[in-house]
């Protein structure tokens, strides 16, 4: 009975882990504003986790620089399955204006499977919440798939 | 017992929360002027590729396929996952084919969901059209100055037409063409339009300093063949007949004059000319000045090791120097040297005393200052300015600096042939 209760609740409160992979800080600020009282994603169950080991959803910002690439991959590996990877802003999806730079190793999809892309430079907080909502649905499906 | 804030705490339980309700509503739009999802109107696009050129994130790409009819099927794609939403593409699009909407819901699980694309067919130029375009389809043959009294009409298909009698083959149109569809050869005097690449944007006609390019809507021009091309050599022919022992005086219009008796045709002046207006042939002993391109900067006269070039303010020189007297005479018929006999040797006499008393101080903000006493308004500084902050008018003799645009790079200072710019 308790097991079922835990399963139901974990699906309703996915914890986020935010990785800054060389972002210009625009997306980082916008992600924080998602959690402020105005947009209040915490009311929907989202909570910023301090460690990747506690997280369900990984939010990546920034164009994945050469320096950050091994750290990003290590952090993502530490997230327990099922996990969902969300890219925020144009940078992790393509490199954006940093595309072609000697120090940019992105896009992120070259290295890991990305579940949700939130486009924009930077995306509006409403769009981020939309993306996270879609991520929770994907997460639920993954969880069901793991049970089978 | 005092409970602080108990009233606020209780009232908050029943009031509406300050946060925005989350509505998974895809019809919600951003604020006015918010730049969200791009909408591309393929019917307005002319495939000039300006958007692709200005895009900092390389988000815009295109694919061209050939249709069975020989037309181009252009598919332009905007990848929103690489877009900064800076709207520079929209600003540069002359035909309003790119639009930014207020839709910010750009959530995707696949890359294809973030692609905005549109396809249109760009008609191939009509190769054969009867009678409608008299001069247009033969731009290569245009430089022939023989066709006198011909009427040159603008074309119907929106593409430019050259007026050979006005054209000085300065290549500005070719440099400005965003599609790279023009090929202008200054030496051979050819003006070629690549019909397939031309997008009919009209940039060439706007850039032409001689108004030698006609676009639809312009007035037809009657080609007066003997007027322009023959105008330059004609006076020279008279001058060649000038009696021996005549003096060579500097010209009044600020352009250089060659002294054939001193000139050794070393070509240094031609190499140094910043405007490329001099043509010197060592073998044939010719020294030709392109009057249209010469800016009168005097670099040639400064570079000349034999002092064989006269600029305004120089002393007149006898045309035939004692030893070399017969040589230039013999070369004269083959060499259309633009020497001009002007008996007034003091053209600059009134200007010179008026200007030096003004000392010009350099500014302390790193931006350039013009020294009007030295400036000859050759426009080289304006042409070399990377941000287009300088506006120099050669005829009106004005030098204007846009202080907001100037970045203080010092390019103008470096290129000024007269050192008339202070930093």
Topology of this structure?
The complex is a heterodimer of chains A (148) and B (423).
Chain A: H1 2-12, E1 15-20, H2 26-34, E2 47-48, E3 57-61, H3 69-78, E4 84-88, H4 91-94, E5 116-118, H5 125-147
Helix pairs in contact in A: 2-5
Chain B: H1 6-14, E1 38-40, H2 50-54, E2 60-66, E3 72-79, H3 88-92, E4 98-100, E5 107-108, E6 115-122, E7 150-152, E8 161-162, H4 172-176, E9 182-185, E10 190-193, H5 203-207, E11 213-214, E12 221-223, H6 228-231, H7 233-240, E13 247-248, E14 257-258, H8 268-272, E15 278-281, E16 286-289, H9 299-303, E17 309-310, E18 317-318, H10 326-331, H11 351-354, E19 369-370, H12 380-384, E20 390-393, E21 398-401, H13 411-415, E22 421-422
Antiparallel strand pairs in B: 1-4, 2-3, 3-6, 7-12, 8-11, 9-10, 13-18, 14-17, 15-16, 19-22, 20-21
User: Span between N and C termini of chain B?
Assistant: 76 Å
Q: DSSP helix count of chain A? A: 5
Helix content of chain A: 25-40%
Judging by the overall fold, what is the CATH architecture of the largest domain in chain B? 2-Layer Sandwich
| Count of individual beta strands of chain A | 5
Q: Work out the count of structural domains of chain B.
A: 4
Written as H for each helix and E for each strand, in order along the chain, the element string of chain A is HEHEEHEHEH
Radius of gyration of chain A from CA coordinates: 15 Å
- Strand order, biggest sheet of chain B? 2-3-6
Give the N-terminus to C-terminus distance of chain A in angstroms.
19 Å
Largest interface pair:
A-B, 32 and 30 residues
Oligomeric status of the shown chains? Answer: heterodimer
CATH topology of the largest domain in chain B: Alpha-Beta Plaits
Order of neighbouring strands in the sheet with most strands of chain A: 2-1-3-4-5
Level-2 CATH architecture of chain A: 3-Layer(aba) Sandwich
Number of domains of chain A: 1
User: Average pLDDT across residues of chain A?
Assistant: 88
From the alpha-carbon coordinates, what is the Rg of chain B to the nearest angstrom? 31 Å
């Amino acid at each position: 009975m308790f097991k079922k209760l835990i399963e139901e609740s974990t699906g309703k409160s996915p914890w986020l882990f935010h990785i800054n992979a060389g972002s210009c800080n625009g997306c980082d600020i916008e992600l924080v504003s998602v959690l402020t009282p105005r947009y209040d994603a915490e009311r929907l169950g989202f909570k910023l986790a301090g460690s990747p080991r506690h997280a369900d959803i990984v939010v990546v910002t920034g164009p994945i620089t050469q320096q950050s690439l091994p750290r990003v991959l290590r952090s993502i590996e530490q997230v327990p399955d099922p996990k969902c990877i969300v890219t925020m802003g144009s940078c992790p999806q393509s490199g954006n204006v940093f595309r072609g730079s000697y120090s940019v190793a992105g896009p992120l999809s070259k290295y890991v499977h990305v579940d949700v892309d939130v486009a924009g430079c930077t995306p509006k907080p409403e769009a981020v919440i939309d993306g996270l909502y879609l991520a929770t649905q994907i997460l639920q499906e993954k969880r069901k798939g793991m049970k089978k | 017992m005092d409970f602080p804030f108990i009233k606020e705490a209780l009232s908050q339980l029943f009031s509406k929360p300050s946060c925005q309700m989350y509505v998974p509503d895809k019809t919600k739009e951003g604020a006015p002027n918010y730049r969200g999802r791009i909408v591309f109107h393929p019917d307005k696009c002319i495939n000039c590729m300006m958007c692709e050129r200005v895009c900092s994130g390389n988000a815009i790409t295109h694919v061209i396929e050939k249709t069975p009819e020989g037309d181009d099927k252009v598919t332009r794609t905007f990848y929103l996952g690489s877009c900064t939403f800076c709207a520079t593409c929209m600003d540069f699009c002359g035909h309003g084919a790119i639009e930014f909407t207020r839709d910010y819901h750009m959530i995707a699980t696949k890359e294809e969901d973030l692609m905005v694309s549109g396809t249109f067919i760009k008609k191939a130029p009509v190769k054969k059209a009867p009678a409608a375009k008299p001069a247009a389809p033969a731009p290569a043959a245009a430089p022939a100055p023989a066709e006198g009294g011909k009427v040159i009409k603008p074309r119907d298909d929106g593409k430019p037409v050259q007026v050979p009698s006005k054209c000085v083959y300065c290549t500005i149109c070719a440099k400005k063409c965003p599609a790279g569809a023009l090929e202008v050869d200054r030496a051979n005097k050819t003006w070629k339009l690549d019909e397939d690449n031309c997008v009919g944007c009209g940039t060439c006609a706007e850039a032409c300093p001689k108004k030698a390019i006609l676009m639809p809507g312009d007035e037809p021009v009657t080609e007066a063949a003997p007027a322009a091309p023959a105008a330059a050599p004609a006076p020279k022919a008279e001058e060649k007949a000038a009696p021996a022992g005549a003096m060579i005086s500097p010209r009044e219009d600020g352009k250089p004059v060659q002294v054939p008796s001193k000139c050794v045709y070393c070509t240094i002046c031609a190499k140094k000319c910043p405007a490329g207006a001099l043509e010197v042939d060592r073998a044939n002993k010719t020294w030709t000045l392109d009057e249209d391109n010469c800016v009168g900067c005097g670099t040639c006269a400064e570079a000349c090791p034999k002092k064989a070039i006269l600029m305004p303010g120089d002393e007149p020189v006898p045309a035939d120097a004692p030893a070399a007297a017969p040589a230039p005479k013999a070369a004269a018929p083959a060499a259309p040297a633009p020497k001009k006999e002007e008996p007034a040797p003091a053209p600059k006499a009134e200007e010179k005393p008026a200007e030096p008393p003004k000392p010009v101080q350099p500014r302390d903000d790193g931006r350039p200052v013009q020294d009007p006493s030295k400036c000859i308004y050759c426009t080289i500084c304006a042409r070399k300015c990377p941000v287009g902050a300088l506006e120099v008018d050669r005829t009106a003799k004005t030098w204007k600096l846009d202080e907001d645009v100037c970045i203080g790079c010092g390019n103008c200072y470096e290129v000024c042939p007269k050192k008339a710019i202070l930093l």
